[in-house]
Design brief:
Number of helices: 13
CATH class of the largest domain: Alpha Beta
CATH topology of the largest domain: Beta Polymerase, domain 2
Distance between the termini: 34 Å
Largest sheet: 4 strands, mixed
Helix content: 40-55%
Order of helices and strands: HEEHEEEHHHEHHHHHHHH
Length: 315
């Protein structure tokens, strides 16, 4: 059983009955679920993942203190701590006196402030441009088991869709990195006999390709260690996974480097097809750099369009 299913069952069997019995007056203002950091929130947990932070548990998200005061929050924390210490044969983790648990009672504003920098999740254009995809992914992942007034879910729905101009700006930057690192610098590094630099160029190309795939799919890319696993869930882009894995994992002898150069161009052509399919580019060539600038030209907001094309890269 994966963590998300375990936690849902634990909430339904042990958590919700306590909330209904002991906190009926504030229940309409509460939200409960499992989201945020951790492989279980993405459904990526397995047997290896159980070496840390794996337990039956959930989050209770509270509104501001004017609705649920500190004393009531303390009583909720006590009630959560008193829930059964074992469920489905799996023991709960001991609560650390210095904190660090991903479960338990959390203020709604604290959760969104941690993930987005804003307690209500409302982002400025600058925030949309600068927040890393993995942070946005942790804002909307997992599952909400109960949401009394729907406020928590409403914020998540707002965050789930990146504004079009923001997406295009970020996409343009990643496409340019793909062009520079893969279509240009990889071969030059090999010509200079700089194998390590060539490997770095490939790494930059693959990272940018992953970022671009998720941007084009309208899904946030999770933390890097789960990016390849998450790629399998993207219907239009899961097919490029073997090529990207080869670029990272194969050797750098003459035969492999020729294959890699071919895969770079095939991957570039694939992305160009995807851009044209979505009408994000007017360029007609195999040079991703020209397509990057064409994508940037599609941005309607002049201030965002005129920012440096690499403004969002490196986030």
């Amino acid at each position: 059983m994966q963590g998300l299913e375990l936690c849902r069952k634990y909430f339904e069997s042990c958590g919700m009955p306590v909330l209904k019995e002991r906190f009926p007056d504030i229940l309409p203002h509460l939200c409960a679920g499992l989201c945020g950091s951790g492989s279980e929130c993405f459904g990526f947990d397995d047997e290896i993942s159980r070496d840390h932070d794996f337990e039956p548990g959930f989050c209770i998200f509270l509104p501001s203190e004017d609705i649920v005061d500190r004393r009531t929050a303390f009583l909720l924390e006590r009630a959560y701590a008193a829930l059964p210490g074992e469920f489905e044969g799996i023991k709960r983790l001991r609560i650390s006196p210095v904190g660090g648990s991903r479960h338990g009672v959390i203020r709604r504003e604290d959760f969104f402030r941690e993930k987005t920098g804003m307690e209500n999740g409302t982002l400025s254009a600058e925030s949309w441009l600068r927040l890393p995809q993995w942070s946005l992914a942790e804002s909307v992942n997992g599952e909400i088991f109960y949401d009394g007034d729907g406020a928590f879910s409403s914020i998540r729905e707002y965050l789930r869709k990146m504004p079009r101009d923001i997406m295009l700006k970020r996409l343009a930057g990643q496409l340019l990195i793909m062009a520079q690192s893969g279509q240009y610098n990889y071969c030059r590094c090999l010509s200079h006999k700089e194998t390590a630099a060539a490997k770095l160029a490939l790494t930059e190309f693959v990272k940018a390709a992953l970022e671009s795939a998720f941007l084009l799919s309208g899904v946030y890319m999770p933390y890097y260690k789960w990016s390849f696993r998450a790629l399998d869930r993207l219907d239009d882009f899961s097919g490029i996974k073997p090529s990207l894995e080869y670029l990272l994992c194969a050797g750098d002898d003459d035969e492999c480097s020729e294959v890699k150069q071919s895969l770079i161009e095939e991957t570039a052509s694939f992305f160009i097809d995807q851009l044209q399919k979505r009408q994000y580019t007017e360029a007609i060539c195999g040079d991703l750099e020209k397509h990057a600038y064409s994508v940037n030209d599609r941005i309607e907001d002049g201030q965002i369009r005129n920012l440096h094309i690499l403004y969002t890269v490196g986030l």
